[in-house]
Amino acid sequence: MTSVQTEQQDLIFGSLNDQQRAAVEHINGPVLILAGAGSGKTRALTHRIAFLIQQGVAPWQILSVTFTNKAATEMKERIKNLLHLVEEDSDFGFRSTDFKTGRLPVMGTFHSICVRILRRDIEKLGRDRNFVIYDSDDQEKLMKQVLKELHIEEAELKPRAALAYIGRFKSEALNPKEAQEQATSDRMQKVAQAYARFQTRLREANAMDFDDLILETVRLFHECPDVLSRYQETWKYLHVDEYQDTNHAQYLFITMLAQKYGNLCVIGDPDQSIYGFRGADIRNILEFEKDYPKAIRIKLERNYRSTQPILTAADAVIAANPNRPEKRMWTERTEGPQIIVNEVRDERREAEEAIRAVQDIQRQGTALREQVILYRTHAQSRLFEEACMRAGIPYRILGGVKFYGRKEVKDVLAYLYVILNPNDTVSMLRIINIPSRKIGDTTLGKLQAHAAARSLSLWDTLLDVQNVTDLDGGTKARIDTFTRIILKYKELLARDVVSVLARDLIDELKMEDWLKEGTQEGEERWLNVQELLTVMRKYDSLEPQVSLTSFLEEVALVSEVDKLTEGRSDALTLMTLHLCKGLEFEHVIIVGCEEGLFPHSNSMFDKEQLEEERRIMYVGMTRARTWLRLMFAQNRFLWGENKSGAPSRFLDDLPDAVVERRSDDMLSAFAWATGSAEQRMRGGKLEPFRQHADVDIEFKQDMSFDDASQENDADVGSRIEHPTFGRGTVIARRGDIVDIQFDGGKKKTFALSIAPLKVI
DNA sequence: CCCGCTTACGTTTTT
DNA sequence: CGTAAGCGGG
Fold first, then answer.
1. Is A42 tagged catalytic?
2. Separation between Cα atoms, residue A603 and residue A150, nearest integer Å
3. Is A241 a residue of the active site?
């Protein structure tokens, strides 16, 4: 071995624990890595890939599927450092259609990888490689048209509902025909019908939605064995991160690739599966060893992120879920602040208190970028945003009204889509009257009738507008103006990069004038357009047409979390619990911990959905390194009504030993210290429960008194002794958490790793 | 065809 | 409550 190689080996293995090392070393055959929260799985994965390369595997033979583009970028960076790769090729992943180049592995989300495959090979399915990608907004517009065509009333089947069903079908890799065969009810027949028509329309527009990207790739593999075989030979080493959140279509994709060499390494944590609603199938990870009987299973159980109180609390919450693989997370950070459970009067107070807590921690020296407020639904964000503004705290919100979802931004993008592909009817309809050209529903109706009668596309009809009989001359002229603009820029496509093209277009459309309208809002919209132009400049160095397609591609596939890397400024982050997966912060505040909101009322009465809600809570809690605060409001203004809800049932599971309860008013602070959420719901009103306060205080003293209790391994039935409560019997055990019936009559819950218990 | 007002409806969660 | 679609008068 050369000295460089030795040095690389040291870098790769030097800092790993035994389990991580095992994960890195087992490079051949199927490997299942069960990686608990904060267990250094990204580290294991990057080191594993670096090791593969160091062992002589060509980088392009390695495929790694990540959950976000941000994760892919970060991992590439780390691999570069491990291998001392100095050259800049961070952009390689997106643009090249030739996979067998580059000094870094192919990394990206399922969606971005599939797009690259399709751009390269989809012509083998008889489709055009310049397809556009429809987002949910576009989908909804198209579905509305489809339902209209099929004479399905909105009351019978709402576009969103139809799309939700279709999404289900697609994630299960069912085509319209199969959906039809499955449909038993009248309603599902209609859905299947809509599905079929929807796909036809997509195809006519040369468009795909997100799910199609995966499905069409699977279909391509299926129908063109030579293509599949080529990719199997290219990517001999496969990795999938966050495997617990893959759906069936994604499962098929990766399974087909793995068929030949079987070098598939999947990483995940069943306790963090939170995307069931969009078809993620937790069985993919739970049954991996059935699919691959020879799989090696590695568990990463050491947590490098959080303090013991945080782990204990999170563990206690997740322990209530059934059918979990055995897992015992541990940390060397045995000391840490208590989890704060904070009761407030109402949602306004909640926002104020949360911001105050953030400022508190900030004063102690933790930057805002290290802090986050997590909520269950986007709708909750507004009050926190307002509280930030009042307090003068810089913040950034992920999700909600997305930048690329803004009307003015989508308008510009729609122009670009149409210039690239005039058959994109959804985009065409979006912009044909923007800015106003007096082409309204009446005119469009006539155009569409003309198109239908001659089976022309809308675009061809526009080109042929002089022959549309029942339009007056003025209208024809205005349509002509529009077509000319599109044709003009279509020609410029070969000459101008996207930023130049778009700038000229925006000038020609006089967007600044009609966007601004002299209002504050208008000013902001214009700024958004300029911001978009700035983003485009990143693509200036590419070939003109490639610069446009690359730009549109990246825009279509950016996730909210990808944007976290943008902007270096120090700001507090606000986002939904779903978006926080894979991230970590010094200080985490989870708000709205109330029955009906979290767990959400739509998920409260279904066993499996409720389990998923619990996992969402687990994910949120385990993002915290040092401080964790859970908040709930006694009253909340929801849907125009003031509702008083019970604290979330998840709070019931927190062991008293690691919790400090705070409240707007002390009397009610302890009111809910005992009794289940369900009981409190039934009882309606909260009941003062002062006598338990002293028990809590007593208990806290026990904490400091503890030192040598970690070795205890009590199981159900074990007799134990506690310095304050005396002797008792373990009556239940869930991981680190035990319930103890004391001989004196009291029943208490403890965390084994913390409580001063002695097995006797 | 456009604008402004009224009404209906909604809130899970996302690539 | 807040927003977005929908309607009717200009």
1. yes
2. 32
3. yes
3-state secondary structure of A687: coil
Q: Let me know if A41 is a catalytic residue.
A: yes
Q: What span, in angstroms and rounded, lies between the C-alpha atoms of A371 and A676?
A: 31
The yes-or-no answer on residue A272 being catalytic is: yes
Q: Is pTM beyond 0.90 here?
A: no
Q: Tell me the residue ranges of DSSP E strands in A532-652.
A: 572-576, 585-590, 624-638, 641-644
Distance from residue A441's CA to nucleotide C9's C1', rounded to whole Å: 18
Closest CA to A710 of A753, A657, A661: A753
With pLDDT > 70 as the criterion, what percentage of chain A qualifies? 85
A639 touches strand B (CB under 7 A): yes
Residue whose pair of structure tokens reads 């087909």 in the numeric block: A256
Tokens of A168: 């289900």
* CA A516 – CA A507 distance, rounded (Å): 14
N- to C-terminal Cα distance for chain A? 55
- Does A232 participate in catalysis according to the annotation? no
More confident residue, A161 or A689: A161
CA of A119 to C1' of B3 (A): 44
Q: Which of residues 129-158 of A touch strand C (CB under 7 A)?
A: 154
> What does the pLDDT read at residue A158?
85
Q: What is the pLDDT of residue A85?
A: 67
Active-site position among A121, A242, A245, A281: A242
CB-to-strand B under 7 Å, chain A 290-349: none
- Active-site option among A9, A25, A42, A396: A42
- Nucleotide with smallest C1' distance to residue A154 CA: C5
Average pLDDT over residues A377-393: 86
Q: Which residue has the higher pLDDT, A436 or A582?
A: A582
CA A40 to each of CA A69, A79, A246: distance values in angstroms, whole numbers, following the listed order: 19, 15, 21
Q: Is the CB of A522 under 7 A from strand B?
A: no
pLDDT of residue A13: 82
| Residue pLDDT, tens place only, A147-201 | 888 888 777 788 888 888 899 899 899 999 999 998 888 888 889 999 999 999 9
* Amino acid A135 CA to nucleotide C1 C1' distance, rounded Å: 28
| Angstrom distance, A443 CA to B11 C1' | 36
DSSP string, A346-398: EHHHHHHHHHHHHHHHHHTT--GGGEEEEESSGGGHHHHHHHHHHHT--EEE-
Q: How far is the CA of A160 from the C1' of C5 (A)?
A: 15
Mean predicted confidence (pLDDT) in A360-385: 92
Which residues, 6+ apart, have CB-to-CB distance to A427 below 8 Å? Answer: A132, A138, A413, A414, A415, A417, A418
For residue A349 the two structure tokens come to 């107070």
Question: Smallest CA–C1' separation from A382: which nucleotide?
Answer: C2
pLDDT band at A755 (very low <50, low <70, confident <90, very high): low
Q: Is the pLDDT of residue A379 over 80?
A: yes
Distance A647 CA to B11 C1' (A): 19
In whole numbers, what is the pLDDT of chain A averaged over residues? 83
Q: Give me the torsion for CA of A489, A491, A493, A494, rounded to 10°.
A: -160
pLDDT at A751: 60
Higher pLDDT, A453 or A401: A453
